[in-house]
Here is the input.
Amino acid sequence: GETFDASSGEHIAVVGVSDASVEFSQNSQLLLVHDWRGAAKVYRGSDFTNVAATIPANDTRHELCRLTPDGLRIISAGENGSIRIWDAESGELIASPVNTTSEPRTLSLSRDSRFLAVVGRDSQVSVAETAANGRGWSLPTSEDLIEAVAFDAEANHVMTVGKSGQVAVWDIRGGGIARFTWPCGATVIGAS
Here is the structure.
């Protein structure tokens, strides 16, 4: 994949050829490249050619990889349901706070980088703190196919949206109690 400056369109760097996804940190100082094999690398520098960290695909293929909004950690969700938190500078494993009951479908991070939510292919939603000794828990299961998950700005609630258009807002600090649930009657494309 090639990297271009978003403002000028100027070519910056060539970063491998088998990239599955790429993501810049919010301050544009790091570039996360997640390849089709499930491994990930974090690049830094003005031309993004210096490898800062490598996340290997040893025991599981990482289906999803995301930088936390603060750029300090990488969250990976493996095809075996494992959720792992890595240091973005060193590539060291920090924590494995929760596992999903199936292969991950989507994940979301709170703006303050303190929480993550992962939806498995079986619609089970797992929520976890991203701190080294953070706890993890699962929301009650839904009969609806969960399509998207997102946090509110203060990371007090997580919203889930089902394929049927059912929206639920969960109080994550209160142990996953549904605060609001309503049908919205719309086709779900995603949540942010």
About this structure: The mean pLDDT is 76. The longest strand covers residues 177-183. The radius of gyration is 17 Å. The chain is about 0% helix and 50% strand.
